[in-house]
Predict the 3D structure of the following.
Amino acid sequence: ALDLDYNKLQKTGSKIKKILDAGREIRIKTNAGTDFKGNITGMKSISLDGDYRNGNIGGNVPVGEVYLPPVTGTVNGKIVIDGSLRHGDGTLIVETPVTLEVRKSQIVKISGGYEARVLGHTLRMARSRAKNKSDIMKIGEIGIGINPNIDIVGSMVLDEKAFNTAHIAIGSNYWFGGDIHTFLHLDQVMREPKIFVDGKRLEY
């Protein structure tokens, strides 16, 4: 995961970032059934590409994702988690896909098998502790994995960066440009996404 052509990765990340930063709408579809849209007008993405030479920026390792907060209240559709799933006690590789139905950025229904029950339990427990309960159920991040040396292994710091994946996060996004303030941030990974920005397929 670390032994990369960083120049190539940075070019890929820069290309995606430029398109996202200029975009108004992102749509993600997968063969598993994901089909959702979100408004990204005015939102600035972050390319986690390993270029930390500027002392004012940093990030975790391994690197390999481009992500941004969608405009709160604009994410609508169906998200099918078929890669890996973050919950209160760790990360699961998904065997039975989990379907999230989302309206105005709020998760309104969770369906599936064991993994869906685990995620639902985590969110219920979080809501019981939260000051603003609605923030717990909001879609706060949309991300794209670009690291070609990573496979989904059940560790989210790796999984969300695997090439040919996309992910969303449930909950907080205030530290990277959003307006959702809560103690929860749960990434959820989808395999083999088809990504469209303003109706045009994103190729990278």
About this structure: The longest helix spans residues 6-22.
